[in-house]
Design brief:
Number of domains: 3
Largest sheet: 5 strands, parallel
Oligomer: single chain
Distance between the termini: 58 Å
CATH topology of the largest domain: Rossmann fold
Number of helices: 19
Mean pLDDT: 83
CATH architecture of the largest domain: 3-Layer(aba) Sandwich
Number of strands: 16
């Protein structure tokens, strides 16, 4: 039975917490000032302390400092009826496990206490010799599910030639990682890998970036400038979001693929190039071809080798490995001990639909590691409605029929709406929280009939 010391100069609060915690299987000790608390903690070998900050004859922050001097491993949760940002910051910086404001919901307090218990148990497991996760650099792509293994196989085949590659997948699935893997495992790996996001530039700017320009070609062109096709000579040029380029640029790109030469803006001379084109898109190019928005001849030139990356929701068996890699990565980056994930939190993460794919999962893990002081991450360390996610997913039928797909879409729509409301419909902030780019946010909003304010 876990021992917990409750410290408060209000006897009513002390007795209420004692009764509540004993009902929840804790052995409870009480103290009404800091001196009595420190004495009891030493005598009873207390591992967990729940203390008020403001007491008439003592100060919870001083008690925190004295307890940490006696035993740095004691976990201290501070309570206060005068919550403030400054108080929270000071408490955490001085070593408090967490900080909770009065009046508090007893069930929320219990959840926090249970989280502290798991942290203590996690520290104990480490002392018994639980192996530390290796601080290895993550591989380019992560996972061993059948669908991601198929991607690995196609990458391997693509490295054997210099044919154009078309990578398709939702935002956040790792299209640039796949492109880099193709380049770095090919005979072009010693040369440059140059990436450009076609959807982020205007038509004229993208043209000058790709093809270069000569002095005087337009206002501001004071010197000749090589384009990215020439810069990537001998290597690979990654054209991300190829589905967003104009029909005019599509014609010029087609000529490059057919003739193997480029003409700088403002020049009449053709320059031979030797570059591999790797393109990527989240858009349905077949549909764009049907609608006359993408040239069919260019489409077939681009998709000599096709690589389709599955969304994270279709390869959920890879989630535990992804979580571990991101835990190691961000623990090292933030100089923290690598935490583990509780069974409940793992269940939550496994049963979420991940509309932002691997990028969103990485964002969630980074945020959780940055904010936690625990050795075990709990469900409430992640910034989405985990309870709603569990309800939706637990209601799904065992089959993968139409009903399941519909439920997943409902959950995705609900999550996007929730994030938009939380950030007051700031589209840049919403995109960052969701782990998707703005173009994907607009597309999903249109799909689900979500009104983006001020549009």
């Amino acid at each position: 039975m876990m021992k917990i010391l409750v410290v408060d100069d209000d006897s009513v609060t002390l007795n209420m917490l004692k009764e509540f915690l004993e009902k929840n299987s804790f052995q409870v000790f009480l103290a009404q000032d800091a001196d009595q608390a420190l004495e009891t903690a030493k005598k009873q070998r207390i591992e967990l302390v729940l203390s008020d900050i403001r007491m008439e004859e003592s100060d919870g922050l001083s008690l925190l400092s004295n307890i940490k001097k006696w035993n740095p491993k004691v976990v201290v949760i501070l309570m206060t009826g005068f919550g403030s940002m400054e108080g929270a910051i000071e408490s955490i910086q001085k070593g408090a496990f967490d900080y909770i404001s009065k009046p508090f919901d007893l069930h929320k307090l219990l959840s926090l206490v249970n989280k502290a218990v798991k942290h203590i148990q996690g520290m104990g497991a480490d002392e018994k010799g639980t192996p530390e996760p290796k601080l290895e650099a993550p591989r380019t792509l992560i996972g061993s599910s059948p669908k991601i293994v198929d991607v690995y196989k196609t990458i391997a085949r693509a490295t054997l030639s210099s044919s154009t590659v078309l990578i398709r997948g939702e935002s956040g699935t790792g299209k640039e990682l796949v492109a880099r893997a193709v380049h770095l495992n090919s005979d072009r790996k010693a040369k440059k890998f140059v990436a450009v996001n076609c959807g982020a530039l205007t038509e004229s700017l993208l043209e000058s970036e790709l093809f270069g320009y000569v002095r005087g070609a337009f206002t501001g062109a004071q010197n000749d400038k090589k384009g990215l096709f020439e810069e990537a000579s001998g290597g690979s040029l990654f054209l991300d979001e190829i589905g967003d380029i104009s029909l005019g640029l599509q014609v010029k790109l087609l000529r490059v693929l057919q003739e193997g030469e480029v003409k700088a803006v403002g020049s009449n001379e053709q320059t031979k190039i030797n570059v591999r084109i790797i393109a990527a898109t989240h858009r349905n190019l077949d549909q764009l071809v049907e609608e006359g928005k993408f040239r069919e001849d260019l489409y077939y030139r681009l998709k000599v080798i096709e690589i389709d990356i599955p969304p994270l929701r279709d390869r959920k068996e890879d989630i535990p490995e992804l979580i571990q890699v991101f835990l190691v990565k961000y623990s090292a980056k933030l100089s923290k001990k690598v935490p583990s994930v509780s069974k409940e939190a793992l269940h939550t993460l496994m049963n979420y639909s991940w509309p932002g794919n691997v990028r969103e999962l990485e964002h969630q893990i980074e945020r959780a590691v940055a904010l936690t002081s625990a050795s075990v991450l709990a469900s409430d360390d992640f910034d989405f409605s985990s309870e709603a996610s569990r309800r939706h997913e637990s209601a799904l039928p065992a089959s993968t029929g139409h009903t399941a797909s519909h439920s997943l879409e409902d959950m995705e729509k609900e999550h996007i709406l929730k994030v938009l409301r939380e950030v007051d419909y700031n589209k840049s902030k919403a995109s960052d929280v969701l782990g998707i780019d703005r173009a994907t946010l607009y597309r999903k909003a249109q799909k689900y009939g979500i009104a983006l304010k001020n549009e």
